[in-house]
Amino acid sequence: MEALILTGGKGTRLRPLTLYSPKPLLPIMNVPFLSYPSALLRKAGVRDLVLCTADSLSPYQNFVRAEARRGTKVYCSRETRALGTAGAIKNAEKFIRSENFFVLNGDVLTDINLSKMMAFHAKRNSLMTIALVPVPDPTAYGLIQLDSAGKIKNFIEKPKRLKKSWKPPYYINAGIYLFNRKIFDLIPKNENCSSERQVFPDALRNKLPLYGFRAPSPYWIDIGTPDKYLEANRDVAGGKFKVKLPGQTLRGKGSRVHKTAQIRGSVILGENCVIEPHAVLSNCVLLDKIQVHESAEVENCIIGSRTIIGKRSRVQNVKIIGNHSKITPFSIL
């Protein structure tokens, strides 16, 4: 079985980090994000992975080689123009040989049991099965309503308020799909087409077999904002997300922390970082080759590679400092 990962987004909410690296390759506890869904798929027996991307392929080469060593073959389906989520799936049709295949959004960190999802899909002879996760408030996401057998009755896009007739738990689209290859017949070729706004509602109107797989108590987070990216790193470091991968570390190779520096809460350092005396780091992710000078403070931030945090400066709640930045001494941000 094959799986597609949709990696064609521009990652605008994580800029300026994504000006230097595609969002799916940003590290989670010093491991490229894409390694997590790849490991999840491998656990379910899926070892052929297709990246649907508009990016240059060169940033992905190290990832492709690392996954090959773990037993997963990675291919790239390149888009020369914007095709939307469904258009990207159609563009990758030539890579799909099996009767059913997975599609994953390229920014979802989860431990959903894909083997159980496959069994659910097969039992119902479904054209499309969407993984669902419960949330206390679906207004920011959109709501999917099911019948007692798990068949999808309705897609409700980001409701402004909850109706009294809607009872919790509220299930939302987790960004993980299992398709029968007949889905390709519903997607126009070489056109910009949305799965969520076009293909899924059309299939529902035509009474095709669409089902929702209610994942039992999964971990699930969209890493696409600075706050969620920090949270994902914190959850992996703290063991809330329990998947272990080679290379996971709080302190990358070559990084040095002075014995008088203070590390508070979840702090993850990339490679070759230098943390000088009396510096204070709290709830932050520092990428590679960062210098934090004497008595500087960094809190609730993501710091891009090759950045210098000057002596006695304070950087708090800034969300993201881009690569190659220089914070002059005694600055307050």
Describe the structure.
The structure is a single chain. By secondary structure, the protein is of the alpha/beta class. It has helices at about 35-45, 60-70, 85-90, 115-125, 195-205, 225-240, and strands spanning about 1-5, 25-30, 30, 50-55, 75-80, 100-105, 110, 130-135, 145, 150-155, 170-180, 210-215, 220, 255, 260-270, 275, 280-285, 290, 295-305, 310, 315-320, 325. The strands form 6 sheets. Strands 5-4-1-6-11-8-12 form a 7-stranded mixed beta sheet, with helices on both faces. A 5-stranded parallel beta sheet has the order 14-16-18-20-22, with no helix packed on it. The longest helix has 13 residues, at about 225-240. The protein starts with a strand and ends in a 6-residue tail after the last strand.
List strands and helices in order, with pairings.
Blueprint: E1 2-6, E2 27-28, E3 31-32, H1 35-43, E4 48-53, H2 61-69, E5 73-78, H3 84-91, E6 100-105, E7 108-110, H4 114-123, E8 128-135, E9 143-146, E10 152-156, E11 170-180, H5 195-205, E12 210-214, E13 220-222, H6 226-238, E14 256-257, E15 262-269, E16 274-275, E17 280-286, E18 291-292, E19 297-303, E20 308-309, E21 314-321, E22 326-327
Parallel strand pairs: 1-4, 1-6, 4-5, 8-12, 14-16, 15-17, 16-18, 17-19, 18-20, 19-21, 20-22
Antiparallel strand pairs: 2-3, 6-11, 7-13, 8-11, 9-10
